[in-house]
């Protein structure tokens, strides 16, 4: 069943045995790097088949199914909603080689924040011109690597960073990152990065005096931006920086509107509402025909809905509370130190799908979901969630797990990260034909 979530919706029960009579990929095929998906087959069907296979054994390790075809749909949606904005995917969100390969084939740029991310993207044959090194505070060795490999587009927000760039990457094309008012965002980036508007004139002059070229301005409204109109003020501030730059002698032609786009369906505000606010602000301050290139750094928008996670209940406790009410503690084989670290940053719990048959609608109980480690902090949510009574060996499915899951996983306490099964559907066939060896499926 789909347990009641933060959106108040509920669904119906589903069970692995529903797939016993269906033709589908055998268990051995799930071990391959990339699984071709049938025309009528879905990622959820693959998850349920895998659960059914594992349920006949004692080895019920956590796993994810990543549907790479989702990337094509998300790319199309982004480009349709923001036709003037070129996406530079934020590698930190999900750095899977398969995800990066597909996005490279789709033609996105990439936002990298370290030498390792630069190496990973460049190894795919992505041109350095399709990369922005968008970390305002870079280690010298990483900066030198970017210089050696032709990555010229770099962000900065301080005079100290300019001094480093002048010494180690004097041919860089610099983008000045502005401080923004992001108090309505779930995770505020302005507490760590960004130059305030009143300091921008001084930074532009310092760059000029050091012989450095500043070619654009950028900002980032933080993760989980809840006010689409925050873009309006940030874009207007960038216009003022463009005006300052002309007086100092810089020729600015690039605007980077950062990230913060929602990745899960039902988010508030919805992506479409955010896109309308951005388009209106661009039309006001950077009208078409002005010769300004606009880019963004979406991460969650592309990656979140790519992955579905499946976890198993490895232990259970029933606790009797005052008044005779029962509370259930479920211990899962994946948790905060694995795929679910990002959950503590979410405003609302991402409610799971319960994979179990019930004769009738079951009662719900307050439940705490713990991860497998010995750390008491290892739980999925701060708050209790409402779930039916389940048993050891039952499965929970979490959709929209492609963002900040595998990239933040660890092996703390000896628990290995969830394995990932990658699938590709008909929507990417043209990519397989054009770049069969890269996508690993042939023609």
UniProtKB/TrEMBL annotation:
The keyword rRNA-binding does not apply. Residues 7-16 have a biased composition (Polar residues). Residues 73-304 form the Orn/DAP/Arg decarboxylase 2 N-terminal domain. Residues 1-25 are annotated as: Disordered. SUPFAM superfamilies: Alanine racemase C-terminal domain-like (SSF50621), PLP-binding barrel (SSF51419). Pfam families: Orn_Arg_deC_N. It comes from the Eukaryota. Keywords: Polyamine biosynthesis, Pyridoxal phosphate. InterPro entries: Ala_racemase/Decarboxylase_C (IPR009006), De-COase2_CS (IPR022657), De-COase2_N (IPR022644), De-COase2_pyr-phos_BS (IPR022653), Orn/DAP/Arg_de-COase (IPR000183), Orn_de-COase (IPR002433), PLP-binding_barrel (IPR029066). The keyword Heme does not apply. PANTHER family: ARGININE/DIAMINOPIMELATE/ORNITHINE DECARBOXYLASE, GENE MODEL 853, (NCBI). This is Orn/DAP/Arg decarboxylase 2 N-terminal domain-containing protein. The lineage of its organism: Eukaryota, Metazoa, Chordata, Craniata, Vertebrata.
């Amino acid at each position: 069943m789909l347990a009641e979530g933060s959106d108040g919706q509920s669904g119906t029960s589903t069970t692995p045995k529903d797939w016993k009579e269906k033709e589908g990929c055998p268990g051995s095929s799930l071990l391959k790097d990339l699984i071709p998906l049938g025309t009528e087959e879905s990622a959820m069907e693959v998850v349920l088949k895998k659960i059914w296979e594992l349920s006949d054994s004692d080895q019920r390790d956590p796993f994810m199914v990543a549907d790479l075809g989702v990337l094509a749909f998300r790319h199309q949606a982004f480009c349709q909603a923001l036709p003037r904005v070129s996406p530079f995917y934020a590698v930190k969100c999900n750095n899977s080689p398969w995800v990066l390969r597909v996005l490279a084939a789709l033609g996105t740029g990439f936002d990298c924040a370290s030498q390792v991310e630069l190496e990973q993207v460049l190894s795919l044959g992505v041109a350095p011109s399709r990369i922005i090194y968008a970390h305002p505070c870079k280690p010298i060795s990483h900066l030198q690597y970017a210089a050696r490999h032709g990555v010229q587009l770099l962000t900065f927000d301080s005079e100290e960073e300019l001094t480093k760039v002048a010494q180690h990457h004097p041919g860089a094309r610099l983008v000045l990152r502005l401080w923004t008012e992001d108090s309505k965002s779930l995770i505020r980036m302005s507490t760590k990065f960004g130059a305030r508007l009143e300091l921008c004139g001084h930074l532009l002059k310092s760059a000029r005096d050091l012989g450095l070229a500043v070619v654009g301005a950028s900002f980032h409204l933080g993760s989980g931006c809840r006010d689409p109109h925050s873009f309006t003020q940030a874009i207007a501030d960038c216009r003022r920086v463009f005006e300052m730059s002309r007086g100092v002698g810089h020729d600015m032609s690039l605007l980077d509107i950062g990230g913060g786009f929602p990745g899960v369906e039902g988010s508030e505000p919805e992506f479409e509402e955010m896109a309308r606010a951005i388009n209106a602000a661009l039309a006001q301050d950077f009208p078409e025909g002005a010769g300004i290139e606009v880019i963004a750094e979406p991460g969650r928008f592309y990656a979140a809905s790519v992955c579905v996670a499946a976890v198993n209940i490895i232990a259970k406790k029933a606790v009797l509370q005052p008044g005779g009410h029962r509370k259930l503690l479920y211990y899962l084989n994946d948790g905060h130190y694995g795929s679910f670290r990002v959950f503590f940053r979410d405003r609302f719990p991402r409610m799971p799908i319960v994979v179990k048959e019930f004769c009738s609608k079951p009662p719900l109980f307050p439940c705490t979901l713990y991860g497998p480690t010995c750390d008491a902090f290892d739980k999925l949510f701060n708050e209790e969630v409402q779930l039916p009574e389940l048993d050891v060996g039952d499965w929970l499915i979490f959709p929209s797990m492609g963002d900040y899951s595998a990239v933040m996983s660890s092996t703390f306490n000896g628990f290995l990260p969830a394995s990932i099964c990658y699938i590709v559907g008909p929507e990417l066939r043209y990519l397989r034909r054009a770049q069969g060896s890269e996508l690993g499926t042939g023609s």
